[in-house]
Amino acid sequence: MLSGLAPSTLALALVAGVLLDLLLGEARRWHPLVGFGRLASALERRLNAGRSRIAGGLLAWMLAVLPLCALAWLACKYAGAAVHALLLYLGIGLRSLRDHTLPIHAALVRGDLDAARGLTSRIVSRDTEQANESDLAKAGAESLLENGNDAVFGTLFWFLVGGGAGVVLFRLANTLDAMWGYRNARFNLFGRVAARIDDVLNYVPARLTALSYVLLAERGRLRAWRCWRAQARAWSSPNAGPVMASGAGALGVRLGGAAVYDGVTEQRPPLGTGPDACADDILRAWRLVWRTTLLWVLVAGIALFALDGVVHA
């Protein structure tokens, strides 16, 4: 295997990494991605200039990602399963999703719109100052569904492919897309490489996530499947579209639509079908992400132990 671990050992490292995340949550101080963000910003300031901005973006991506991936691979090779589990813990964001979104649900339930607006503004880029309960519930549910793929299932997928080094590759590429992958004057050329690499790395995980949302739908698997097939292609992101459309269909709720960015209302394509989002849809979206995590860990564990049995037969 690319991880260098026996399948059963990789399964144990997988479970250990997920449990560490659930027990400890996101590192409060000295999180590696914070330091990486500073490095990425410094590279962007240096290389996002001149006529060859696409080449500058490629060089910046390589300088930011490849040395750290090589270090992760060496650490995993010589320090073993514990480092694989540690890197998975640092890369996965399951508990962080819960900790950032369920307080929004709690604030909405007690009718504290000001608190809910402040909490929502921490996890989305849209304006929340005038948002009502449905707007905030929609933002929270969308964030859970989309980041379930980016922060959890894509990370698990690349851990299964390449162990700890796979996690580092995926999470760093995903972070650079979040920092540079904008279609504006500053990043349209420079960030194009980062956006395309993230699209490629996320292609399979996103569709497995969408399929998982369909299988675990609360209110009709067929509806979730139809929403995926009919609505995903209209979304601007080739990977977020399937994930969010199938997730909205699985919840039986209407997402997408109008959202305010920098004072301008944007009409986004519709997602799902049913009533407008309410506070409880945040909780239901979290439960869908949680059940999907359990499904992935269970299926991966069974498959890896079975593969181990075949290898040693």
UniProtKB/TrEMBL annotation:
Converts cobyric acid to cobinamide by the addition of aminopropanol on the F carboxylic group. Belongs to the CobD/CbiB family. The chain crosses the membrane at residues 54-74, 151-173, 288-307. It is a multi-pass membrane protein. HAMAP family: CobD_CbiB. Keywords: Cell membrane, Cobalamin biosynthesis, Membrane, Transmembrane, Transmembrane helix. This is Cobalamin biosynthesis protein CobD. Pathway: Cofactor biosynthesis; adenosylcobalamin biosynthesis. The gene is cbiB. Coiled coil: none annotated. It comes from Telluria mixta. The keyword Cell membrane applies.
